[in-house]
Give the backbone structure.
Amino acid sequence: MIDLELLTEQVKGVAKEAGAFLLAERSHFNMDAVESKRAHDYVSYVDKQSEQLIVAHLREILPSAGFITEEGTAMKHDEPYCWLVDPLDGTTNFIHNNAPFCVSIGLCDHEGMLLGVVYECTRDELFWAHRDGAAYLNGEVIHVSDVSDLDSAFVELGFPYDAENYGPFAIQLVQRLYGNVGGLRLLGAAAVETCYIAAGRFDARIEAFIGPWDIGAGSIILQQAGGRTTDFDGEQNWKDGSRVLSTNGKVHQQLLSVISECRGALDNSPV
Ligand code: LIP
């Protein structure tokens, strides 16, 4: 039986060390180091070296765990536990010296998420939670907002790299929401944006075509703060990042209705 409290404390240290690496590299980062994995999907040595640092520590902390990592440093097989690692979430923000960008480390077993740690480097904000406890920001317990009226909701949108398949849906979503919610924001880092809902700074987030590493850690932090994550049908098929609605729980059903009005454009996409 693993000790979730001890593991979470250890992972917090790993996230902070990786975050310090990101900030150090940001201080002298050169755009010449940027590569493209596909159109507008950027990566650099910073993502890769951060992931190598994180994986090396996690292997020591829990040798019986596999990995799902954004940059493919390590893999999963049939281990009882699995780490979900985004070594630099908000890469495009990072390479342009923008915020937010963060480290995201989650752990799951065959039943679901066990713990999550997200460190947003530019504001020195460490979010964490495990399945048996509260959600925290820098040591303070956090809770989702009480906003229950969509017209007042502050909503984050994510625009994935696959503009061709996501674009028609994204445009319909903006047309349906813009002017009908409290505000719309596009911050470019799913992991920490999910934590912002947990902290009551936002009330909902909508995105598709992201990775399990983008959403794993944030989803349990949000859950332990009283929030909810589903796919676009209100079901639990979101863990691969393909369709993800994250909310404070109180505007969830209203946003599922909005998504269902727009999703024809998405359901016709081949992904
Ligand atoms: C990013 C996500 C963001 C999404 C971007 C990208 P990355 O992750 O956090 O929500 O809109 O397309 O996937 O690539 O910075 O780790």
